[in-house]
Amino acid sequence: MLTKIHLENFTAFRNLDINFSPGINVFIGPNGTGKTHIMKVAYAACDVSVSGKNFADKLEKIFSPSHHQIGRLARREKVSINSNISISRKLKNKISHLALTFSNHTTAFEKADISGFEVWNSDKIRAVFIPVKDMLANSPGFRSSYGFRELCFEEIYDDILERAQLKPLKGPADRERKKLIAILQKAIHGKVIEKKEEFFLKNKQGELEFSLLAEGFRKLGLLYVLIQNGTLLDGSALFWDEPEANLNPSLMEAVVDILLALQRLGVQIFVATHDYVFLKWLSLKIDRNDRVTFHSLFRRNDSGEIQCSSFPDYNLISPNPINGTFASLYDADLLRGL
């Protein structure tokens, strides 16, 4: 379970500290405040605990800076500057820290300084990052091409297909996973199957390839696959960037139900969103035992630096640009009707 992240002079951040909830972490804020960057760093830290890859190498591959130079992930300054990243996690009876330091002149990931990896790697955190762009429709042949060709895709796209193509766990699914799969089957009107790296939605009409499906259904279909094959189990982490993208608002309640249920099963969840419907359903569905924290990212008026305020209740969020925008829209609608 991840507990904290510290970013110093990294991409858009000068100095940022965020304490994570063991349940659901929701990131909101205007474009350009680094929501996705925070999730990518945290995801990379989880991934290297399983893959054993170099942390700096993983970051370089999922951020994909120009010329593969990790130094370009440092905060842009006209002088030499060091970037520091630290991720903390609860590991049995102690807290483990994975730290990385590099400068804006660092060209190769091997030259970055990493500490804490041996202890960090002693216990694995299986994680999955669902990007905004759907990849299941592009599955056939993608992974083999990615492994041998220079493609302009961040590594999260290869990673998500690797997770999606895993075979189901042996034995019948447990009751809770069956319940989640049933919710998704109802939402997408069928079940998802795979044949030779190609995904299909199977229903009464037959087998419909994912390239012909609405992208919102593809997104729910991916969640179906990850639950069915056991990727999302107790102790794993789910990172989801803008779950609302291409999804009809009528399906958002089902998405919230799934995320809350996964959190109750022991999955730590990180979501970046701009969607009012998602946030309102989440705030309405939370019960007293759910562990949800809302992280509001914003720029200070005086310095323009990105900061974060965290809240246990949606109604306490400040600043809340999403709520403010919808309140303005409601007021404009009332004025038009007068």
Defining traits:
single chain; 338 residues; alpha/beta; Rossmann fold; 2 domains; 5-stranded antiparallel β-sheet; 10 helices
How does this structure look, described?
This protein is of the alpha/beta class and 338 residues long. Helix 1 (35-51) crosses helix 2. The protein is globular. The strands form 3 sheets. Strands 7-11-12-3-13-14 form a 6-stranded mixed sheet. Strands 2-1-4-5-6 form a 5-stranded antiparallel sheet. It has 2 domains: 2-126 and 233-337, 3-Layer(aba) Sandwich (Rossmann fold), CATH 3.40.50.300; 138-231, no CATH class. The chain contains 10 helices and 14 strands. The model has no long low-confidence stretch (mean pLDDT 92). A hairpin with a 2-residue loop joins strand 1 (2-10) and strand 2.
Write the layout of secondary structure elements.
Blueprint: E1 2-10, E2 13-19, E3 24-28, H1 35-51, H2 55-63, E4 82-91, E5 94-103, E6 113-115, H3 117-120, E7 127-130, H4 142-148, H5 155-164, H6 175-188, E8 191-195, E9 198-203, E10 206-209, H7 215-228, E11 237-241, H8 252-264, E12 268-272, H9 276-285, E13 292-299, E14 306-311, H10 321-337
Parallel strand pairs: 3-12, 3-13, 7-11, 11-12
Antiparallel strand pairs: 1-2, 1-4, 4-5, 5-6, 8-9, 9-10, 13-14
